[in-house]
Design a protein that fits this description.
The longest helix has 14 residues. With 130 residues, this protein is α/β, with parallel strands linked by helices. It is built from four helices and six strands, in the order βαβαβαβαββ. The mean pLDDT is 89. Helix content is 31%, strand content 22%. The protein has a six-stranded mixed β-sheet, sandwiched between helices. Helix 4 links the parallel strand 4 and strand 5.
């Protein structure tokens, strides 16, 4: 598994992923994809076998629901609206802790920190409606 970190998140998350055993993970900046629209990022991720990490979950869920299959989506959400680098790192590490050993295609994982409360996780499926 490898992660493609969206531009709304810190490039440091790609380093965290690599250090945690996902050596081919990258930030969109490192791949020349900075400022590309989400609808261009999704096919790139699918073609190249990346799971996507973002805090723009609504757009990516909507786009991934239109695909045949994908390699996963990690959504990091801070309800306080504060998504500084430290918060991103904490939520992403929590996501990596929560990953199943052999995730199936079309999986989603949301790590949410409600304002003033500990982070929660939610596993879900993102696939094309029948």
């Amino acid at each position: 598994m490898k992660f493609l970190i969206d531009e709304c998140l810190s490039p440091v998350l790609a380093n965290i992923a690599r250090n945690r055993g996902f050596p081919l993970s990258a930030h969109v900046r490192d791949l020349g994809l900075l400022t590309r629209p989400d609808w261009r990022i999704v096919p790139y991720a699918i073609r190249n076998g990346y799971a996507i990490a973002t805090n723009d979950s609504e757009d990516f869920v909507r786009l991934l629901e239109r695909t045949e299959t994908h390699f996963g989506l990690v959504c990091l959400v801070a309800d306080s609206g504060v998504m500084d680098r430290v918060t991103q790192e904490q939520l992403f590490n929590r996501a990596l802790d929560e990953l199943p050993n052999a995730p199936p295609a079309d999986w989603g994982l949301e790590v949410r920190r409600p304002a003033g409360r500990p982070a929660t996780t939610r596993h879900f499926v993102v696939r094309r409606p029948p």
